[in-house]
Amino acid sequence: MLKAEPVWALGTMSGTSLDGVDAAALLTDGETILGFGPSAYRPYSAEERAVIRAAFGRWPGEAGVEAAAEVVETAHAELLSELLEACPEAALIGFHGQTLAHDPQGLAGPRRTHQAGDGVVLAEVLGRDVVWDFRSSDVELGGEGAPLVPYFHFACAKWAGLAEPVAFLNLGGVGNVTYVDPREPGPEVPGAVLAFDTGPANAPLDDYMRLHLGQATDAGGALALSGQADAAAVARFLAHPFFMRMPPKSLDRNEFHALLQALVAPLSEADALATLVACAAAAVARGGEHFPSPPGAVFVAGGGRHNRALMAALAQRLPCAVAPVEELELDGDMLEAQAFAHLAVRVARGLPTTGPSTTGVSALVGGGRVSVPQGV
Ligand SMILES: Nc1ncnc2c1ncn2[C@@H]1O[C@H](COP(=O)(O)OP(=O)(O)OP(=O)(O)O)[C@@H](O)[C@H]1O
Ligand SMILES: CC(=O)N[C@H]1[C@@H]2OC[C@@H](O2)[C@@H](O)[C@@H]1O[C@H](C)C(=O)O
User: Which of this chain's residues are annotated to bind ATP (predicted)?
Assistant: First the structure.
């Protein structure tokens, strides 16, 4: 176990959007952020993306999973070797892997979650201790296994010197939010954080663009901005049982796929995208009703903050200021990768990474396996 001195750690995220892998360096003792280091990004090629996409929804041992894991490991090994040249002092790596399937409620079989990519392989290749498989033990102990970034959001609020409750919103393929009260001493203290997935965010937009326009994304939200949201479709979306559940709660990337694509199928392309944007924003606003008190502001990270239609819809629906995390001098493209550096240090120090208020697990859990290079 590491001592409590701060160490440089690298963290990675390969998110549900499947655009590529983010990696970032962080100086932390697992509680306090002491500095941000270099970061790097490696997109997946179209071929690599297809291999991973073919394994979506699959569990270990099923067809295509090994090939997907190999793509994930290779991409991470390449990116992390590069980042280690910029930050050779990094002692530890937090490797999230790529979520292929997530069923913590056991809706389609046993309760389980599946991140492709083997930390043992990466530890050997990179010659560093690798912390990985962050979600399984939380799910095994009854939690949702997600979201995992909230304890890092708490550290970010402290780092930014905030003195009142705020929310951090990640708009990836799926959205997740953390209500943070930085007046509390630590994230594991009851009342310090409340976190949950808000609902689908960019995934339905990307899926629609790919299926109807042969493009990866609605850049800047331009097409959505030219359309009109269908209020009846948004109301039907909000009638989904997910929105009746109390947090903590989490989502599989594709849980809303069929419903949303069917709801917008009769609409024009611009109206369909405007409606999907309105659904993502409405889901966040619905989630905000669970906050114990109104936050001073919602700070947004993840690719969705580049979508002007989505940011405008959020500003319209939320009862407080909405701003990108850059307003706090944080990097909204690297926040998740930095979170896994922070979480790796927490695991190495034996500190919890999730708790009742973030995943619904009944006790504090330090989730993650540590693999040490054997040098063979
Ligand atoms: N310039 C842009 N304009 C509009 N949307 C964008 C832009 N840049 C990124 N996005 C959206 O953000 C998505 C990527 O966001 P991000 O990298 O935060 O997701 P992720 O980490 O893969 O997902 P998750 O957080 O759910 O795991 C893209 O797929 C796209 O939909
Ligand atoms: C199972 C899984 O990989 N979930 C992701 C996904 O993408 C966003 C949202 O859903 C979030 O809960 C989670 O990722 C972030 C990093 C988290 O665990 O905090």
Answer: 15-22
